[in-house]
Design a protein that fits this description.
The longest helix is centred in the N-terminal third of the chain and has 9 residues. By secondary structure, this protein is an alpha+beta fold. It is about 20% helix and about 30% strand. Helix 1 packs across helix 2.
């Protein structure tokens, strides 16, 4: 196994972060400084900053009901991060995709790179479902524009389905996954999204009894 892959699986670092740690001299293999591109065996002892690392081989998938006010990166740059409230046993898991600081709901955490890639890569077209609330109700004309598609920098933003739940509340499903796509799509028509809550991602559905900040460990689907 390549050393950077082992580090990513066992420490929570990205592959690039693992290479940076190796280059900085923070990693030893069998008490000798590690080198970039190095391969290791299962019997080798790897340390990061003097701490022995143990590979996490079993697949772990966790559903997390992310609260508003937390960012999904490890470095919050002054903001609280999901890792401030994630239990120690899940600290090495990585989020699949992201929810912005002002959004809530289903966030998947896993150590399964193949699953993460399948959920995130555009070619697999995994559907995501969101409940949202606007600052004001939509006019019939603007609703029609949303359904036809709204031009953004990346192209035409188009939802798979839009359901009106009364007043200014909507349910939106889409398989595109551009940065802050839903907020920008409605913003292009001068509508402010005041609540955005994800309830489904691919085959994974947020349990109705899972409160904000709570976790549920599930099988790979």
């Amino acid at each position: 196994m390549r050393l950077n892959r082992f580090l990513a699986n066992s420490s929570g670092l990205s592959r690039r972060g693992a290479d940076d740690a190796i280059a900085a001299g923070r990693v030893d293999v069998n008490d000798a400084p590690a080198s970039l591109g190095q391969r290791i065996e299962i019997t080798d002892v790897v340390t990061l900053d003097g701490h022995v690392l143990i590979a996490q081989t079993a697949d772990v998938v966790v559903l997390f009901n992310k609260p508003v006010g937390y960012v999904c990166s490890r470095n919050g740059q002054g903001s609280q991060t999901i890792y401030d409230i994630i239990p120690d046993k899940y600290q090495k898991l990585k989020p699949v995709g992201r929810l912005d600081k002002d959004s809530s709901g289903l966030l998947l955490l896993t150590n399964n790179g193949l699953l993460a890639n399948e959920l995130m890569h555009p070619k697999f077209q995994k559907q995501k479902v969101y409940e949202l609330e606007l600052a004001k109700p939509m006019s019939p004309g603007d609703l029609k524009k949303i359904l036809q598609g709204v031009k953004l920098e990346e192209g035409i933003s188009k939802f798979d389905e839009l359901i009106e739940n009364g007043g200014n509340k909507l349910t939106v499903s889409l398989h595109q996954g551009w940065n802050r796509q839903i907020r920008r799509t409605f913003g292009a028509l001068s509508y402010n999204v005041v609540r955005l809550h994800r309830t489904k991602f691919g085959n994974y559905v947020l349990p109705s009894n899972l409160g904000y900040g709570e976790f549920s460990e599930v099988d790979v689907l």
